[in-house]
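Students often ask why we bother predicting the structure of a whole assembly rather than each chain alone. The short answer is interfaces. A chain on its own may look different once its partners are present, and contacts between molecules only exist in the joint model. In this exercise we take three input lines together and write out one structure for the complete complex. Read the inputs first and try to guess which parts will touch.
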Amino acid sequence: MAVSAAASDGNVETGSWLNIDTLPTLIFSLISLLIVLYAIWSVKSGRKFTIREIPGLKAVDEAVGRATEMGSSILYTPGWGGDIQRPTTIASMNILSSVATRTAEYDCRLIYPTHDPVIMAVAQEVVKESSIKAGHPERYRADDIFYISSSQFGYAAAVDGIISREKPASIFLLGTFEAESLILAETGNSIGSIQIAGTDSTIQLAFFIVACDYTLIGEELFAASGYLSGNESILSSVKAQDIIKILISLFIIVAMIWATIDPSSTWWVF
Amino acid sequence: MRTKIPLVVCLAFGVIMFAQYFSNHTIARAVYNNILEWWQIIFAFTLFVGVAAFIKNNLKSISLGKKDTPYKIVSLIGLALMPLLAIIGGTRIGSPFLWSFENMLAPMQATVFSLLAFFVASASFRGFRARTVSATILLLTALIVLIGRIPLAEMISESLPKTTFWIQSYPSMAARRAILIGIGLGSMTTALRVILGIERTYLRGE
Amino acid sequence: MDRLRTRWIIFSGLAIVVIVSYLITIKFKTAPSPATLKAYKYLDTLPEKSVVIFSFDHEASSLPEIQPIALAMLRHAFKNDLKIVGLSLFAEGTAIGYDLLSKTAREYDRQYGSDYIFLGFKPQYISAILGMGESIKRVFPEDYLGNMTDTMPIMLGIDSYDNIEMVVSIADGDRTVQWVEYAGARYNQKVMAGLTAAMITSYDPYLSSEQLYAVVGGLRGAAEYENLLDKRGGGSRGMLAQSAAHLYILALVIVGNIIYFRNRRRRGGE
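Now the answer. The structure tokens for the assembled complex follow.
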């Protein structure tokens, strides 16, 4: 262990507890944390937060209803690019929880193929809990939530095959996607499914916008858990996000004006 | 207890990993290096979970005689064959394992990737319609970039590649940065919610 | 059925265009983009025996596009007598990377162990990238061939990023982002990338802020690099097919709009 090595060699520098080069990042992080905590405290003091209508999330009910009416299934997949520690995957799990509750209520089949065994295990727990919450634990089908392959195009080919054979009425593409995004979206489009997509990749967003019916752009995906559950604490953190964004925008405007007036200044560079 | 312990563990490690980023003290580095090593070990064990689940699901599907049974059989053969080849012949240059990888897996992967070109063509045919003013601007921009990226562009006009470069470097990048900032903030607040225990979906869907 | 037939026509047309293009030989002179030129100039001006890491962070699926880029840059590095440390943060990139590295080394009569080394694959890429900032030999105690790294002549004096001039990430996804965000931000390691064309635009923000030093992107980037090296390869050969495909899609878009306006006029008339 590095500590023992350092202790045995008296000449090794122990370093400082605070790395000055990271000070701007620390200050920004602490300010953001304070804003989030303030927003949570405001909610607990009785303040109400609302967020605007997000078409992609509003369409979740429509998508589940369509699949139920057609006697078909729903396919939900979190993409190949992320693992469970990624915030995008966590955000996707929140929406999965909502979708799974509705599919359990309407007895609609939910197919969830994934590339990661940990995501599979978490998704199984999420869907199981949602079925229990909906009052229909018997409608939980563990076999419909499965691991395919960690290989990108092995995963894409398998999901494409499932879409072509099962012909789901609704497809949810929510998570971190890479090159497989358009392959999945176009296949879904070719069978006439309603598709709701959202990702943190700006490249794949462009593909989703062309090929899908609804796309969650940018932080709309992360606002999903608050939007769908109505949980006040989560909504407050979404509001905190907006406040931080306003501060960043003001900073950019001030820096831009300052740089225009005095091109040699560099106080904003860190 | 079942949810409290994971929440406490999540909070503790979240705070440690956050704090260590701002320190270059030997103790902070040592803690950090150890966590990284444990992370690698845990990841290795999760692969067993995946393989076990894969085998179980496929065998069950085959026994039930579902419509995609042939694909399940091929998958299981592939799963068994590759490690067998690796154990028998090793994984170095010239081994059967590497031959299978280079001559079966790699071409299959490249084939599926190449589907993207076809799907881009059909998506472009369907998507780039001059329905509104903004759609028309998008269409014209796409046409300029399509031509600007090929060597022919320099033969048509010197300003085509320059315009393409300008479009990619300024308006496109401005929009991308704005979305990236939003995504970054969304990721940050989601991570904070997980660390603080507000977001618990990963724990039994709460 | 009509939708399916349209797809068949589009797909068949593209296949014919690309196949015919590969049967014809036309040489294009591709003027280098600023980013490719910057990458070329950096490797060209490095002193002999400088150490460069080549990280093969890609899958087998993107090999047709990525291989020309990797070959061009490796040839340049070997030609200028730079020392190369190869590794992979993607399991599939391992065998491919070793193969490319050793084949290119043979072209320039370079010796394994003293002129180049391949460290192999490390899972959990973030911990691997961060760990190399402390000690490369600790992250890779053995190389791909099973030799102890601290016994290899090339690794003498190479402890961490302090001894590395540049990391070249040959990637088809977001591994390069991790190199920039962890090796670049934390250890001030210079990073440049060889990327698939689809990924170029997502790295533009990093390029303009100089967090990413330079990018050689797509088949065109490979062709540009080959022109600078004056050695024709896969990139140059693919330029006609790529140009033909772009023009085909251009034609499709124009035809699609003609059909759209004609149908709109008909509906308006009715």
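Check your guess against this: Residues 1-12 of chain A have pLDDT under 50 and may be disordered.
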